[in-house]
Amino acid sequence: MVERYALEPLKSLWSLKSQYERWLEVELSVIRAYEELKIAPKGTYEKAKKNAYINVDKILEVEKVVDHDVIAFIKVATSKMGEEAKFFHFGLTSSDIVDTANSLALVRATKLIIEELKKLSEILLTKALNFKDLPTIGRTHGVHAEPTSFGLKFLSWHAEIERNIKRLEFAMKEISIGKLSGAVGNYANIDPEIEKLALSFLSLKPTKVATQVIPRDVHAFLIEVFALVASAIERMAVEIRHLQKTETLEVQEPFKKGQRGSSAMPHKKNPILCERLTGMSRIIRSYVNAALENIVLWHERDISHSSVERYMFPDLTTTLYYMVIKTQKLIEDLVIYPENIQKNIEITNGLVYSQRVLLKLVEKGLTREEAYKKVQEIALYCWENKTSFKDAVKKKFNLTEDEIKEIFDPKYYLRNVNKIFKRFQ
Question: Where's the Adenylosuccinate lyase C-terminal domain (predicted)?
Answer without folding.
Answer: 349-425
